[in-house]
Write a structure and sequence with these properties.
The chain is an alpha+beta fold and 312 residues long. It has 12 helices and 8 strands. The strands form 3 sheets. Strands 5-6-8-7 form a 4-stranded antiparallel beta sheet. A two-stranded antiparallel ribbon has the order 1-2. A two-stranded antiparallel ribbon has the order 3-4. Bound molecules: zinc ion. The site of zinc ion has 5 residues, from strand 6.
Length: 312
């Protein structure tokens, strides 16, 4: 019995050590360049490595086999070295392409990571509306819009960064993601909103009820981020649906958007703060400096603006 206890303790200690090791930054070999990309510090928990420790409630219980195997496998992967490249080659590539892009996006770098890093932090929501006449002066047509839609526009830096985002997304297997909406004027937002309210009223809702319901899905004119020219909707479905969240494409976009200066604006666990339902298709340009911080802090823009005010 004593031996079993000792063995169990040893295994528990080993598992804890492994969990500690695997929760550190993992270096993943880059298939294309042979260079390595060190993943940024992510604050989200890693349940696979933490959860299996729970079974050790008494000295008699041993850690399930698969836990040990799983953890060992991860360490083995971590220990694997990338194909040999000369030191100078690695250094040069790492400097030019620190985020491990598969496509050469160097021409887009100044847009994705703007020199004026605070220029794109405008917060627009029901509590912070923009006026009826608010219209950005640097709107540019998007190269990559869905063929069955009319031309879409975004502000220059957002438009260029989006181009880079979509190029890299395609290189990573998101072949059919396309833009369905970008800049919307006050009037076009009003048209969408009023049209939907009318449809709800035809279903029997009063005007007040219809407006209240619609506000959860669609921004009230003047309260839409799309009016800033910094927001974009993109997906690979016939229309924007939450089911998009379950696709590989949505997951890739959400995990990588910050590299291109974008954030997933309406997250599932932030609905109470943003007042909008989860929109896996809606991305907002803020520039990489802030996008990376927002991603790592797992904050919505409302929380982040407040965070900046409290941590100047
Ligand atoms: Zn949108």
């Amino acid at each position: 019995m004593k031996f079993i206890r000792t063995a169990a303790l040893l295994i528990a200690a080993f598992t804890l050590l492994c969990a500690a090791l695997t929760s550190c930054d993992i270096t993943v070999p880059d298939e294309t360049t042979g260079t390595t990309y060190v993943s940024p510090v992510i604050t989200s928990p890693t349940p696979e490595t933490i959860a299996p420790l729970d079974p050790i409630t008494d000295g008699e219980t041993t850690v399930p086999d698969e836990t040990v195997t799983e953890t060992t496998a991860e360490i083995t992967t971590e220990g694997t070295t990338a194909p040999p490249v000369t030191e100078s080659e690695t250094t040069t590539k790492a400097i030019e392409n620190p985020l491990g892009f598969k496509v050469d996006l160097s021409a887009y770098e100044k847009y994705m990571d703007p020199a004026d890093k605070d220029a794109y932090l405008i917060l627009v929501n029901p509590s912070n509306p923009v006026g009826k006449d608010y219209k950005p002066t640097d709107l540019e047509p998007l190269v990559d819009t869905r063929s069955d839609r009319s031309k879409r526009y975004m502000r220059l830096y957002a438009a260029m960064s989006l181009e880079a985002f979509l190029k890299e997304a395609r290189a990573n297997g998101c072949k059919n993601v396309t833009v369905t909406s970008a800049y919307r004027s006050y009037d076009s937002q009003k048209e969408i909103f009023d049209g939907d309210v009318e449809k709800l009223m035809k279903k029997g809702y009063s005007k007040e009820e219809a407006i209240a319901i619609e506000r959860k899905d669609t921004a009230y004119p003047g309260e839409s981020e799309h009016q800033t020219g910094l927001a974009v909707d993109m997906h690979n479905m016939s229309s924007a649906q939450q089911a998009f969240a379950n696709t590989y494409e949505a997951q890739w976009l959400a995990e990588n958007c910050w590299k291109f200066g974008f954030i997933l604006r309406y997250m599932p666990d932030k609905e109470d703060i943003t007042t909008y339902v989860y929109e896996p298709w809606h991305f907002r340009y803020v520039g990489r400096y802030h996008a990376q911080r927002i991603y790592e802090l797992h904050m919505c823009l409302e929380e982040y603006i407040e965070y900046l005010e409290n941590n100047p």
